[in-house]
Amino acid sequence: xxxxxxxxxxxxxxxxxxxxxxxxxxxxxxxxxxxxxxxxxxxxxxxxxxxxxxxxxxxxxxxxxxxxxxxxxxxxxxxxxxxxxxxxxxxxxxxxxxxxxxxxxxxxxxxxxxxxxxxxxxxxxxxxxxxxxxxxxxxxxxxxxxxxxxxxxxxxxxxxxxxxxxxxxxxxxxxxxxxxxxxxxxxxxxxxxxxxxxxxxxxxxxxxxxxxxxxxxxxxxxxxxxxxxxxxxxxxxxxxxxxxxxxxxxxxxxxxxxxxxxxxxxxxxxxxxxxxxxxxxxxxxxxxxxxxxxxxxxxxxxxxxxxxxxxxxxxxxxxxxxxxxxxxxxxxxxxxxxxxxxxxxxxxxxxxxxxxxxxxxxxxxxxxxxxxxxxxxxxxxxxxxxxxxxxxxxxxxxxxxxxxxxxxxxxxxxxxxxxxxxxxxxxxxxxxxxxxxxxxxxxxxxxxxxxxxxxxxxxx
Length: 460
Prior knowledge:
Blueprint: E1 20-21, E2 35-38, E3 42-45, E4 50-53, E5 60-62, E6 70-71, E7 74-75, H1 83-89, E8 90-92, H2 97-101, E9 103-106, E10 109-113, E11 115-117, E12 121-123, E13 125-130, E14 138-139, E15 144-151, E16 159-166, E17 201-202, E18 205-206, E19 212-213, E20 221-222, E21 225-228, E22 231-237, E23 242-247, H3 252-255, E24 258-261, E25 292-293, E26 298-299, E27 304-312, E28 321-330, E29 333-336, H4 354-364, H5 369-372, H6 375-385, E30 387-395, H7 402-405, H8 431-437, E31 442-452
Parallel strand pairs: 1-8, 2-31, 25-26
Antiparallel strand pairs: 2-3, 4-13, 5-8, 6-7, 9-10, 10-31, 11-12, 13-30, 14-30, 15-27, 15-31, 16-22, 16-30, 17-18, 19-20, 21-24, 22-23, 27-28, 28-29
């Protein structure tokens, strides 16, 4: 769906991607336990699980001092006037995770706060799971299942506590791009299916050319280039609504990292190299109004276990992806994903298959860029290459998160299939509202597991 980085203004801290490494703050990754599971060996805790903060949230300053290279939504052109010069003259600093960014870990649990005040105010955050100090953990999900626990009880309308996979490079682009001296250790190399143009550095060079500040966000802007790759949204959610969504891309390397420009960047929206909408399964949008939410079948006042299974045609890791299934566990009880509830209009699908996506797009009147970009089979080819796990919390300057938790488009009949996505008001979700009234919001992810199907959860 729609995604836009929500960045903070931190007084002397700027928010950006970079390639050089600073020496003012030692980069120490918080440890985060996760498990790999097999039928023969059970679940084993990985020995070196840790997280790193995305470079878009870090302080960027000149290599020989404290002058910001980027402040607010503008580059400091007196410091660097072009991409190569910025790569050479600007350094990315280490992060003070808890005090500055509201990010903390405890055993197998990760907490990301929405708003944190220190020297300035940080809004949102995004981290990646790593298998060492310098490489992202790579997940290979075909014929596997991925499970985690989540607490969204403090994630209200207009805010998204998200967990998703993207086909990033394991080293953050360090080996491919000579200008990148920071790599995965400092959270470089982000990409997704929206081909975001608000990334300050792409391919090891600053995205200075054509840069303009956002008209709605004083801490963000866009440049000429974007960063595209395939994306598998496992969990886009707050306490009102949730969705899981595959987004294939027609980039080199079956959806791998690609620097786009012009139409390639989904400008206009459906003319790019990636599927911006994806094929989503949101229980509310599928007509199940009492399934997910406070006090409902899946009660968002409590911790939830979420299981996602990636089924191939021959039940092997080399087969073709044909089905993405969802289960929940709460209070020791396995809860099946509810079937689509539009009798006589749409068949009762309860998982993401190619036929589900085709029929859903037709009935909802959505653009089928999912099929154009290869559908489930192409998504599977991307997953076979390995994906990086991203975990975040953010608000939405573009569409106020209405596509997730309200009626969208706002001028359509909310009773029409596909329009209602949640019970949040169409007038809500603005960043100003969420930042003023929901400063204590946070998401907690825990108990992350990946393994053979049927090995990562229990329940009756």
